[in-house]
Design a protein that fits this description.
single chain; about 400 residues; alpha+beta; seven-stranded mixed beta sheet; four-stranded antiparallel beta sheet; about 50% helix; elongated; cell membrane; Macrolide_Exporter_MacB; membrane; transmembrane transporter activity
Length: about 400
């Protein structure tokens, strides 16, 4: 198939060719960025928390005086533990996907900024109930669990666990065991490293697992939030009973219904917006590709009707149906390719705008050939019907209009 005659024919239809190419360019730019955004959202939704999610829930209460914290903890832990099916109850600052209870900057030398991390505070037994995987060092022992001073939200000093991601961030290429870091005047020594322990906010990106576990005794600010562990088959029933039980064991507090849920429910609620965004973008992609395909079909059908005489002459002088079919497919391929080239440039421009205003990461290059292949395939499918109709025109029918 010679390309030059096709290009000469396209120059006679510059406006129509340009409009279809621009439609394809826009589709390419939107397709690449939309697929990239969907992939990012799906990746964030599949984040590994590092805890036994299927067995864990959280009960959050408010409206109590700090001086009542110890008494409230005793009543809540005893009352919740009495629910059939509950394996353990512990006072914690938060759980993954729960309220963000402790975020602070850390330094390694009191002078230079290190990073911002999520702090988890919990009593003895919390780590085992969470199901954290220790990959280096040791777990806190009984002496590491100390009371939190009045009006403080962390113990002033402690031996703590950090995630592998945080260790790599603060001490790249080094063992974190025995290392020190500070949050304001608070001083902490690393005694162990866990594989994964996602921060409560779960915002995605590199810092999603920059977190540390600080052991502490219940009381003071470590009150009002309780981690419940139960068999996965019983968890939702246990959480329903736990929410009802709060009114009996602590009628003077206010139950936070939104956050008093199992972790699977908290996860689903946390990513509800992301799922909606992904669904909306899939709809946008489908609509855009549908409009693009209709544009290609309409233009190809129009050209087939206009070229019946030309097609009949070519068939009369020996062109086969395959030749006619390949002509229209090659013509479409050239138009789509021109649109894709412009669309790739538009894709980077659109990505730069999204990076500036919505903090989206840089668009990886491999999304461009994916978008190109999708549009080439769409173009060939869209033109196939009109091309087959053109190839089916018999020479005698086409030449009767001469």
């Amino acid at each position: 198939m010679h390309i030059r005659p096709i290009l000469v024919a396209l120059r006679k239809h510059k406006l129509a060719t340009f409009l279809i190419a621009m439609e394809i360019a826009l589709a390419c730019a939107v397709l690449c960025n939309a697929v990239f955004i969907i992939a990012n959202r799906l990746s964030a939704m599949n984040i590994v928390t590092g805890v036994d999610e299927a067995s864990l829930g959280e009960i959050v209460v408010t409206g109590f005086e700090p001086k009542e914290a110890s008494d409230l903890n005793a009543r809540m832990i005893a009352g919740l533990a009495a629910i059939p099916g509950v394996e353990s109850v512990h006072a914690v600052s938060s759980v993954p996907f729960g309220p963000q209870a402790g975020v602070a900057g850390v330094t390694l030398d009191h002078k230079h900024y290190g990073t911002v991390i999520d702090y988890y505070v919990g009593d003895s037994g919390t780590i085992k109930a969470l199901g954290l995987e220790l990959v280096a060092g040791a777990m806190p022992d009984a002496d590491d669990y100390q009371a939190i001073p009045d009006k403080a939200w962390l113990p002033p000093s402690a031996r703590v666990l950090v995630t592998r991601a945080l260790a790599d961030r603060l001490w790249p290429g080094e063992s974190p065991l025995g290392k020190m870091f500070w949050t304001g005047p608070y001083q902490y020594r690393v005694i162990g490293v866990v594989a994964n322990f996602m921060g409560a906010a779960a915002n995605g990106g590199g810092r999603a697992e920059w977190s540390a576990f600080v052991p502490a005794l219940p009381g003071g600010t470590l009150a009002g939030t309780y981690q419940i562990r139960a068999n996965p088959q019983d968890l939702e029933r246990v959480m329903t009973e736990a929410r009802k039980t709060v009114a009996t064991i602590a009628p003077d507090v206010v139950l936070d219904h939104e956050n008093s849920q199992s972790i699977p429910v908290l996860r689903a609620a946390h990513f509800a917006t992301d799922r909606a965004m992904a669904g909306m973008l899939i709809g946008v992609i489908a609509a855009l590709l549908g409009v693009t395909a209709l544009g290609i079909v309409g233009l190809a059908s129009f050209w087939v009707a206009q070229r019946r005489k030309q097609i009949g002459i070519r068939r009369a002088i020996g062109a086969t149906r395959g030749d006619i079919l390949r002509y229209f497919q090659t013509e479409n391929f050239l138009i789509v390719t021109f649109g894709i080239v412009i669309g790739m440039l538009l894709a980077f421009v659109l990505n730069a705008v999204l990076m500036k205003f919505y903090e989206l990461p840089h668009l990886p290059l491999y999304y461009l050939p994916i978008g190109a292949l999708a549009l080439w395939g769409l173009g060939q499918l869209a033109v196939l019907g009109p091309a087959l109709r053109a190839a089916a025109v018999p020479p005698v029918v086409a030449t009767r209009s001469v």
